[in-house]
């Protein structure tokens, strides 16, 4: 009989491409991952990996096992979900991963509602960059998490995760009061952008280049509260999603662009009807539906991405 944990490692290798990435996702050493995959090959009786120098790729047998392995893992998740549905009342841990803006705005009301309706749940929130959520879900460090991408830089769906939409937000150009109002007018401005390698930085570069220029980066900050404080201090301009603009500091103008940020609720395939996951989806959707647009004060009429 195949070892499910080893099967999960092989599926993760197909998704992450390298043994080093699989090791990092599971907090193992690369040597330990290699040993487990070698043991899986012995269980199967066929070579699953082709090694070329330091790189590995799946053999035909490996690809077949991954295809069926994803179905097996989803079926196990469905089994856990079905058993959980038989319990009387919701209890036990519910591990939630969310990005900082959502933790500040949507999670408090969600947690209060969950605790009131399901006092047996042990709610645990971890603040994570969305890029770290899939690995945490795969490794069962999270039960549910929030992912996002942007319409101008879409992210490829993970075949081992199911998602449902939560938010579709406007992205704003944040300017110091009195600054130029359109995106193209910021050609010579100083910019506040996210850290290198992040999706937020990639989006800023994409949007600016589409407007005909490369932004001149002065500051780097990943927290949108910090970004808006720097904008208010006249330190530059930036792009911020709607969820971060509920209470902009005095002296910040917000110009809506055509760019959209899309947030989805993610969980492992087969977990959609798990009572705790379904309860979380219900409550965070309720919290997001009551989330209003920021006040009109300090907000200019739409200019679009021109």
Summarize the structure.
By secondary structure, this protein is α/β, with parallel strands linked by helices. The chain has helices spanning 4-16, 19-26, 30-44, 60-86, 100-105, 107-117, 133-138, 199-210, 224-232, 275-289; strands at residues 49-52, 55-58, 92-98, 121-127, 144-150, 161-176, 190-193, 216-220, 238-241, 252-268. The radius of gyration is 22 Å and the shape is flat.
Main sheet: strand order: 4-3-5-10-6-9
CATH class value of the largest domain: Alpha Beta
Q: How much strand content do the residues show?
A: 15-25%
Mean pLDDT: 87
Can you tell me the overall shape?
A: flat
Q: Sheet with the most strands? A: 6 strands, mixed
Measured between the Cα atoms of the first and last residue, the distance is 60 Å
Rounded to an integer in angstroms, the radius of gyration calculated over CA atoms is 22 Å
The fold-level CATH name of the largest domain is D-Maltodextrin-Binding Protein, domain 2
CATH architectural group of the largest domain: 3-Layer(aba) Sandwich
Structural class: alpha/beta
| Count of β-strands | 10
Number of helices: 10
Which regions have little confidence, pLDDT < 50, spanning 5+ residues? 293-306
Number of structurally distinct domains:
3
Superfamily at the CATH H level of the largest domain? Periplasmic binding protein-like II
Order of helices and strands: HHHEEHEHHEHEEEHEHEEH
- Considering DSSP H and I runs of 4 or more, what fraction of the residues is helical? 25-40%
């Amino acid at each position: 009989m195949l070892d499910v944990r080893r099967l999960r490692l092989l599926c993760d290798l197909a998704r992450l491409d390298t043994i080093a990435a699989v090791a990092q996702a599971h907090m193992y050493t690369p040597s330990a991952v290699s040993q487990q995959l070698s043991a899986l090959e012995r269980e199967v009786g066929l070579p699953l990996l082709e090694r070329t120098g330091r790189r590995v790729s799946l053999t035909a047998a490996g690809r077949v096992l991954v295809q069926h392995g994803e179905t097996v893992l989803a079926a196990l998740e469905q089994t856990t979900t079905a058993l959980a549905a038989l319990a009387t009342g919701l209890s036990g841990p519910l591990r939630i991963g969310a990005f900082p803006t959502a933790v500040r705005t949507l999670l408090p009301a969600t947690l209060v509602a969950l605790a009131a309706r399901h006092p047996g749940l042990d709610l645990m929130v971890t603040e994570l960059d969305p890029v770290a959520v899939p690995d945490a879900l795969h490794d069962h460090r999270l039960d549910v998490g929030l992912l996002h991408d942007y319409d101008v830089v879409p992210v490829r769906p993970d075949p081992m995760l199911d998602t449902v939409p939560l938010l579709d937000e406007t992205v704003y150009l944040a300017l110091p009061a009195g600054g130029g109002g359109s995106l193209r007018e910021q050609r010579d401005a100083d910019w506040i952008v996210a850290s290198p390698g992040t999706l937020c930085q990639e989006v800023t570069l994409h949007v600016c280049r589409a407007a005909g220029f490369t932004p001149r980066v002065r500051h780097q900050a990943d927290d949108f509260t910090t970004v808006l404080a720097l904008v208010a201090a006249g330190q530059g301009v930036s792009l911020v999603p709607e969820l971060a603009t509920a209470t902009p500091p005095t002296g910040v103008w917000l110009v809506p662009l055509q760019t959209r940020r899309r947030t989805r609720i993610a969980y492992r395939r087969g977990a959609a009807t798990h009572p705790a996951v379904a309860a979380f989806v219900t409550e965070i959707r309720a919290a997001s539906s009551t989330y209003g647009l920021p006040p009109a004060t300090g907000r200019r009429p739409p200019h679009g991405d021109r």
